[in-house]
Specification:
3 helices; two-stranded antiparallel sheet; alpha+beta; Aminopeptidase; 168 residues; globular
Length: 168
């Protein structure tokens, strides 16, 4: 797990949609009202418009306070992905990980998760949990998460709780 400095630009470029010319990728912690509007716009596009999972993306009580970290990913200066971490005591909870549909499959989710996991460790978390949509379980397993409990439904989509212990 790397050290999250709060702002990072990937040194290499990501391939374009047609596999051609590279595209500039950046990831950073969201800060300020404009960034939070971008976070909520991506959440809305994925969780409301695309998946019909919920009708509210901007009233999560864990979005605010000293334990909250929002990550924004950019491709060519356009916000394309988000994720949120909330740490309380020694446990982190990751939620709202979303990549806009045209930008999936490029490693953006991996970069967001890497930043969230590093931020969790820096804030003293020894364990991180998340509620995974079951289609994404394989992705989270590659990141070291394991499933716990049984599958449950939210918004008509199967979910399961996953957990990862962080290295000391």
């Amino acid at each position: 797990m790397g050290r999250w400095e709060g702002n990072r630009v990937r040194g290499d470029e990501m391939g374009g949609e047609d596999g051609g010319e590279g595209r500039r990728f950046a990831i950073r912690a969201a800060s300020g009202p404009r960034d939070l509007r971008e976070v909520n716009a991506i959440r809305r596009a994925v969780f409301i418009d695309e998946q019909h999972l919920t009708d509210v993306v901007d009233r999560d009580p864990y979005d605010h306070g000293s334990g909250a970290v929002h990550i924004l990913a950019f491709l060519d200066d356009r916000p394309v992905g988000v994720g949120r971490l909330h740490v309380s005591r020694d446990e982190g909870q990751i939620a709202w990980v979303a990549i806009l549909s045209p930008y999936r499959g490029r490693g953006i989710g991996w970069e967001i998760m890497d930043a969230l996991l590093a931020a969790a460790g820096q804030r003293g978390a020894t364990r991180v949990t998340l509620s995974a949509q079951t289609h994404a379980v394989g992705f989270y397993r590659l990141l070291g998460f394991r499933t716990v409990g049984k599958v449950w439904m939210m918004g008509g989509i199967e979910h399961i709780t996953m957990v990862r212990d962080l290295e000391e």
